[in-house]
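Office hours follow-up: a student asked to see two folded examples consecutively, so here they are.
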Amino acid sequence: MINVGVAAHSEGSNRELARRFVEKLSNDVRIILGGYWGLMRDVADVAAERGIQVVFILPNNPRELPPRNKFFIPIDTGLDFKARSTILVRSSDILVTLGGEIGTMIELFMAYSYGKPVVILRNTGLSTDKLEKAFNSSFDNRLTAPIIYVNTPEELAEKALAIASKGKMLNIGLSSRPNG
């Protein structure tokens, strides 16, 4: 199972963008979101329609709770938005963004700092579009994780799966080595 964290705009809605992204995900994916509003809601609803499990890492006093269904797992952290983001990022094998503002960018920087690969959709019309100009292939000189920019939501899903699958295989190989 691959845990794909999705950082997305909390104000706007774009069901078509969400549909194009989610339709390219495989069935061995679990999506992790920070809430059930804005573009995150679109991703969650499309995922549920496809039978993909969605875990919500909710902040205290969320704007809206996800509906009860067999595909949604809400986790009430009781934490503020930034602290909740730490759990979202740490629980993800990879973090992708369909575009967003400062909260999304904080999650992207956090993922990078934890060594989690980041895949960013270009040309969303949101502030995350500015990241590539400032940070081409890395957020700093440490090169702790790959930063990849893509042009379409389909490419976002395909790159995320390829990178996360490769990382999972490396981890499996490392964990099967005998100690000593």
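And the second, which I mentioned at the end of office hours:
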Amino acid sequence: MSNAAAQAYARTAQTTASPREIEAQALLKAANKLQDIVSNLGRTDDEFAAALLFNRKLWAILLSAVTSDDNPQPVEVRQNIVNIGTFVLTQTAELQLNPQRDKLKPLIDINCNLAAGLSGRA
């Protein structure tokens, strides 16, 4: 498939994806960035920081959406997501101050598990 065709397909997929699918894709993208840091020990500190920044920004967006007054999810579900998000942001901040590849696994697992749930694969 040509590059132009791949880009057109990606644009079409984005316009037809549900919000849950988009959230799942974003979580998997963050997990992949973090996994790439774990798998490729030659990655630089800047790449490590960039992967953490992407994850932090994503979770800030997710937390903003889940705490919005117009969020239709039950309060218990929203609170669970806030608790997970608080953990993720705390871990991310700690890793930004003291980068350790071996401590990325919980963040990767959380993102993958939530993505699977959003996709209906859990």
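Two things to take away from it. The chain has a mean pLDDT of 88. The chain has five helices and no strands.
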